[in-house]
């Protein structure tokens, strides 16, 4: 029987192609991504991870068993501690105070993504929540490993690439897939479809997030 996560991954095939071929990610691969675009991305990703960690903490609160509580709790810690180190190293090189980045204004892309996940975490089932957080694991690992195979020599973005191509990140992705598959197996068909929708919507938000960093899209009107 085909795993639920394989099914939703297949449903996202066109979107995954769009992610891999987006100029932000091809620029990461080639080392040609403008550094101002990457700086925008890093600032917004700092804000995103604060929200993402909260969603993961809500996942721990909703989890059906101790193993899931531990997995979501550890993932929340990694989002704050480990990835903060990666962000800080790049932001410092750009002359940006990492602490000031945490107080930046989120772009519409960042705010919409975080708010969608928080709404899903609060109003949806544990399965919907788990499916919603999976794209941030799986798409990043997918992109990171693909880029790592073709990364330019002396790539400025190699530390970012190595983070998401790392076997440890692959293991975390696979553990989250197991959790999502178990939730789907315990769910009825209506809930499984809601889980699929949550996964696909968050995968779309990932593309939008990268695209906003590339284009510099921000609030069209400010107070």
Task: List strands and helices in order, with pairings.
Blueprint: H1 4-11, H2 13-21, H3 23-30, H4 35-62, H5 66-80, H6 82-93, H7 98-101, H8 108-123, H9 126-150, H10 158-165, H11 167-186, H12 189-215
Helix pairs in contact: 2-12, 3-9, 4-5, 4-6, 4-8, 4-9, 4-12, 8-9, 8-12, 9-10, 9-11, 9-12
Low-pLDDT runs of 5+ residues are: none
How much of the residues is beta strand, in percent?
A: under 5%
The count of strands amounts to 0
Question: Briefly, what CATH class?
Answer: Mainly Alpha
Number of helices: 12
Q: Output the CATH homologous superfamily.
A: Heme oxygenase-like
Main beta sheet: strand number and arrangement?
none
Describe the model:
- The chain is mainly α and 223 residues long.
- The longest helix has 28 residues, at 35-62.
- It starts with a helix and ends in an 8-residue tail after the last helix.
- 81% of the residues lie in helices and 0% in strands.
Q: What's a concise summary of this model?
A:
By secondary structure, the chain is mainly alpha-helical. Helix content is 81%, strand content 0%. The model has no long low-confidence stretch (mean pLDDT 95).
